[in-house]
Specification:
Length: 123
Amino acid sequence: VQLQASGGGLVQAGGSLRLSCAASGRTFSSNIMGWFRQAPGKEREFVAAISRSGSITDYADSVKGRFTISRDNAKNTVYLGMNSLKPEDTAVYYCAAKVGYYSVTNPQNYDYWGQGTQVTVSS
C-alpha cells in the first residue's frame, strides 16, 4: 500500500483544514487507517483512527470534538477534517495503514506510512 497525504497549509487559529490521504492498491478497504502528527522536537503522536467500514473511530483527547476522521473506500481515500485549529496543532501530519483494529494509538503497529503534510497554525 502506498499512501499520499495532502491538504496541509498555513491557517490562522480558529480556522479549518481538511487533509486527504490517497492510497494505491486494491486492499485499502481491508486496512485500518490512522492519522499521526509530529511537531519539531517531539515524538510522533496519535491523532485519529478509523475502522475498515468507518463505523469505529478513535481520537486523541487533544483533538476530540474538533477533528473528524472519515474514509471513502470507493475512492481509496481517508480524510481528516480539522476545525477550531490551535497553534499547538502545528505539526507534520502523517497517514498510516495497518491490518487489525488493535493498539491503534501506537505508531509502531502501523505497516505503511505516507510522506506527511505540513500543517501550520498561526496565533
